[in-house]
Amino acid sequence: MAPLSGAGSVFEVSEAETQTVPEFSTGTIRRKRRVRWWRFVVLLLAGAFFLIPLYAGIKFSLQNNLHHFSFQAYEKLPSAPGFTAALSLSGKIALVTMVVSTLLMVPTAIYVHVRLPKLRRLLEVVTVLPIVIPPIVLIIGVLGVFPTWAKASPYLLSFMYVILSMPFVYRSLDAGIGAIDIKTLTEASRSLGGNWLNTMWRVILPNIRPALLSATVLTLALVFGEYTMAQLDLWQTIPVWIAQFGVSTDGNIQVAASMAGLVGTWILLLFVVSIDRSQSRRTRRKIGA
Amino acid sequence: MSNSVVPSSDPGASVSGSEEVTYKQSSPWRTFFRRAEPVFAMAPFVVYSFLGLGIPALAVIYYAFQGEHGGWTTSNVDQVMHGVFLVGFENSIKLGLLSAVIPGILGVFLAYAIQTSNSNVLRRLTSTAAGVLANFGGINLTFMFIATLGSTGILTYWLADIGVKLSNIGFNLYTFSGVLVVYMYFQLPLMVLVVTPALGGLRASWREAAENMGASSWSYWRHVGIPVLLPSILGGMLLLFGSAFAAYATAETLTLGLIALAPIQIGNFLNGNVIAGQTHVGYAIAFGMLIILTITMILYSLVRKRASKWLR
After folding, report:
1. Of the candidates B1, B247, B263, which has its C-beta nearest A196's C-beta?
2. Domain coordinates of chain A in residue numbers?
3. Is B279's Cβ below 8 Å from some Cβ in A?
4. The CATH number of the domain covering residues in B75-311
5. Residue A14 confidence class, pLDDT cut points 50, 70, 90
6. How many CA atoms lie within 13 A of A224 on its CB side?
7. Are the C-beta atoms of residues A146 and A236 closer than 8 Å to each other?
8. In terms of Cα–Cα distance, which of B293, B100, B119, B174 is closest to B285?
9. In terms of CA atoms, which chain B residue is nearest residue A139?
């Protein structure tokens, strides 16, 4: 593989860079046609695999008991027993999770960037651990040793969701802080007489707002979708309610709740992706200027 | 936190510089706080992650070796290595391997098809969709597939119309084969996400060079494309293995906890379905999962290192 060794770091090559390499091929029209043909088949099959279940789920939720088209399930949803309680429980847990996660991770990420850059690698490793140690293992440990008063509170879930959200919250903040010249900004603010709190609130936070926003939205999506810990900690959050409700009663309502949650989550996540994209465009412009 | 340490009226006080000059006259207390500042600043994060990650992990390891009435024992771990719990591990590893290799290979083709298409819209759309789908699982996914491949599902009807009965080809949504198909729904996008940057690194000029020297499409892939991509593909597959091996929510909601997988068995312990004399076996299963996942992640980091070393 020696001839390849001079090719540069292939993993870091951006999309734009690969596109600038011109295509010199001539006389390969036949090959190209074949490539296009199998590409079409692959994309068609993948599209079917991803879209048919989505279609089936939505169709099922838009049926009444006689299999006719109807919004019945969605209309019944708000008055379904336990739904509002589950929604407000999920809402409260989400709110506490987002607040604690922000208060914990933002100062830590900023401090490490400004003062202790050597610790960045360590922080990366620690914040990736919640992926290595799965929720099911964490929750059995938590329920084994945490005191009873903690286990009696739904906010134990908030406590753990902050941990579960660390991988993407830290990554998002790290990218956001890395994209601005935080050292210069901090020094400028300090030399103009701003104290730490002022610097944080009025200089750094406005600059990392997109990163903070995407971290928060991802946390929200996590809380409203997390099933493992909530179910085993015996709290009826939205996903647990959905799973337990329809078994005894109306399956269509259950699927309707699930599809509503799904579409809501996807809209949130698409929102995050678009934030990320506008942020990276901003960074690129900065580098280009 | 430390706003009292640096006199804000001092114009020369920068964040990182001139410590001795600024603090020569400070009191011993101030010097102490100054020195201890990193400790105070990092303390919340360190304490929080120790409570939320360290304590639970240590508890799992500790209880895995604790007997029913205290005292150290290996009987929990022993039980996990036999009988129904061993079956759980075997099934989980089998599920992890199958849902790493199948979506792993298909994901490369899919990513390549997306990457080489000339449509920018398609590329952007699929990369967004992959990011969303890879984070997707649990109850919503379960319902979508019940509506698709369950006994009254859409696809089940369509297939019955053309004369294919799913039960005749050994497929049942609520068993192992069903879980495997459902996991593909988030595994395939995950693989596309992981392998797309590596595919982007395959230079068009390499292919031109190979063709100019008379290489066929097959020998280009055999000698250039696949060797370059292999570490990334293996890395992706290891990630997929970890993700499928540890998943609980989707399998639990789909099979109502009836499938013998290691995470489901832990859940059964927590739900109180415990036989006398086995109260700590759940911890031993969790301990076993920790070991397998740690090995997976060590292999992953080795493969990653290999991938970057090779290509530099």
Report:
1. B1
2. 84-288
3. no
4. 1.10.3720.10
5. very low
6. 24
7. no
8. B293
9. B56
Rounded Cα distance, B64 and B290, in Å: 12
Shortest Cα distance, chain A CAs vs residue B45, angstroms: 6
Can you give the three-state secondary structure of A159-207, one letter per residue? HHHHHHHHHHHHHHHHHHHHCCCHHHHHHHHHHCCCCHHHHHHHHHHHH
CATH superfamily, region A84-288 = MetI-like (1.10.3720.10)
Q: Which of A46, A197, A258 sits opposite B3 (nearest CB)?
A: A197
- pTM for this entry: 0.81
CB B117 within 8 A of CB B109: no
* Chain A residues within an 8 Å CB radius of B269: 140
Residue B197 in contact with partner chain A when CB distance is under 8 A: yes
How confident is the model at residue A225, as a pLDDT?
86
Contact flag A183-B16 (C-beta cutoff 8 Å): yes
User: Is the Cβ–Cβ distance between B255 and B173 less than 8 Å?
Assistant: no
| Predicted pLDDT at B311 | 55
Three-state SS across A226-240? CCHHHHHCCCCCHHH
- CA atoms of A89 and A247, how far apart (whole Å): 21
Q: Where are the domains of chain B?
A: 19-64, 75-311
Q: Which amino acid is at A194?
A: G
